[in-house]
Amino acid sequence: MQIMQPLSRLRRGLRKPNKPRPRGFTIIELMVVVSILAILVALAAPSFTPLIERWRVQQAQKGLESTLYYARAEAIKRGGNITVRKHPSGTNGCALASGTDDWDCGWFVFVDTNSNGTLNAGEEVLQSFTTPPNIDVTRTNGGSSIQFDRWGRISGTYVGFSFVPHNKSISELSARGLCMSSGGRIRIIKSEDMPCTSG
């Protein structure tokens, strides 16, 4: 004979054991963690500045190097009349590049049909580059444009540029120089060898 148990007893036997409820952070614990993180960020932030400056200098230097190679190739392909010209001050909100030697706002390549070194109506822009913020790009031997002939040579003897974090000197460790010979050979130099004195 089977003994019947009351229904309430059966239900009690099927219940899962009580588990402790997960609890969240208290406001004090959260404030302590945020304070520790703020202190760590404050200590680490200054050490990132040279790294960011070095990265921006390298980005601008590689951008100009690539542009010069591109302009030279286009000049050979099109039979000359290719010019690289600096963006004027105020381009894309850039407040730098006030002088003819200052290329801080970037540069562009265009088909210079009348070979005057200036972008005129109807002349095609082939490429444009905007420099990263807070980088001073200065042309060593002057000029706001670089013209290439049909053999890919530049007008003048050589082209020299310096890339320096804003308001710092060429002796800064992250500074770099770019030297291009009249024939188109490009060298990248470190701060101790700047400025360019030849191509």
Structural features, described:
The chain is of the alpha+beta class and 199 residues long. It has one domain (38-193): minor pseudopilin epsh domain (minor pseudopilin epsh fold, 3-Layer(bab) Sandwich). 30% of the residues lie in helices and 22% in strands. The protein has two helices and eight strands. The chain has helices at residues 7-14, 27-78; strands at residues 82-86, 107-111, 125-129, 135-139, 145-148, 158-165, 176-181, 186-190. The protein has a four-stranded antiparallel β-sheet with strand order 3-2-1-5, covered by helices on one side. It has a four-stranded antiparallel β-sheet with strand order 4-6-7-8, with helices on one face. The chain is elongated. It starts with 6 loop residues before the first helix and ends in a 9-residue tail after the last strand. The mean pLDDT is 82.
CATH architecture: 3-Layer(bab) Sandwich
Please report the total strand number as a whole number: 8
Per CATH, the superfamily is minor pseudopilin epsh domain
**Number of discrete helical segments:** 2
Distance between the termini: 109 Å
Number of domains: 1
Estimate the global geometry from the Cα principal axes: elongated
CATH fold-level assignment: minor pseudopilin epsh fold
**Cα-atom Rg, whole angstroms?**
31 Å
Order of helices and strands: HHEEEEEEEE
Mean pLDDT: 82
